[in-house]
Amino acid sequence: MCDPLDQRIHKFYAKLGFLPGILGDLGGPRGDMWLYYFGEGSFVKKFLNDHPFAEFKVSRGKTNFHMVGFYSMRWTDPISNDSLEVFIRGQPGQLLEGGTMPRIGGVKLEFCQLSLDCWIVEENMDISMGSPGRFSLNLFNRSDKPLSVRLNTLSPMPRGISLSIKSPPDITIHPKENLTIEGEIMISEKFDAPLKYLSFPTVISSLALRFSQNVAIIVSAGFNVPS
After folding, report:
1. I need a labelling partner for 3 at 20 to 30 A (CA). Which of 23, 58, 129, 197 fits?
2. What is the pLDDT of residues 16-54, one digit of tens each?
3. SS3 labels along 186-218
4. Considering all CA atoms of the chain, what is the largest pairwise distance in Å, rounded to the nearest integer?
5. Contact, 147 vs 173, CB < 8 A?
6. How far apart are CA 218 and CA 207, in angstroms?
């Protein structure tokens, strides 16, 4: 996170490979923006390694992706026209109250014979014992061919947190099908994370999706734990 007007710090982070993901409000008193670094092993880095001339574009504000407001980062190869777009849930800066931990909540793929939209919709904002965080994972196969997907939760899960998905691990999405998978994140009495010392009191769980074209992505759902 950094000041959107401080060009010296921009140059410093750019040399390290950071990119802007959520731009701050240039006219606001607290206009911090969030920066992202995609290291080796991440699905974004793999796309960039395979498309070294990809052009980068960041949204200036929230964009509408399937009726959900996200910030977006997009890479397009000017030669093949392959593209990858990640959609970020969050807000500029670090709020003193409220707010949520920035995370990738959606991905749009246009490469390796894939044409897919993937996004998560959280049904509620908060989570507590006895009140799980419910969400839907949406997969829209825009291509004319069936798409095979293996769905896994990232492990190990943090202490006292469990994630359940109402779906078998291997699924097929038919051409032009919009598939919705329901999921829940639950916390138990074993959950003992010191949230008051963290930037955001957000519990996040991530899902890994691997496609038959040997392409993988990760999307996350998040819910706040009331103080």
Report:
1. 197
2. 999 999 987 666 555 689 999 999 999 999 999 999 999
3. EECCCCCCCHHHCCCCEEEEEEEEEECCCCEEE
4. 53
5. yes
6. 6
With CA atoms as reference, report the closest residue to 54 among 13, 110, 114, 119: 110
Q: Is the pTM higher than 0.90?
A: yes
Q: Is residue 7, in this structure, part of any structural domain at all?
A: no
The total of structural domains in the chain comes to 1
Between strands 133-141 and 178-187, the pairing is antiparallel
Structure tokens that stand for 190 in this block? 């074993």
User: What pLDDT is attached to residue 26?
Assistant: 62
Domain membership flag for residue 44: yes
Please state, as a whole number, how many other Cβ atoms lie within 10 Å of the Cβ of residue 89: 26
Beta bridge partners of 137: 120, 181
The 10s digit of each residue's pLDDT in 87-107 is 999 988 877 676 889 999 999
Would you list the DSSP string of 32-52? -BEEE---TTSHHHHHHHH-T
**Residue 8 within a domain:** no
Q: What is the DSSP letter of 11?
A: H
CATH number of the domain within which 215 lies: 2.60.40.10
Instruction: For residue 134, report the phi and psi dihedrals to the nearest 5 degrees.
Output: -105, 140
Name the residue range of residue 103's domain: 39-224
CA atoms in the 13 A half-sphere facing the CB of 22: 23
Each residue's pLDDT tens digit, 97-149: 768 899 999 999 999 999 999 999 999 999 998 899 999 999 999 999 999 99
Q: Is residue 168 part of a domain?
A: yes
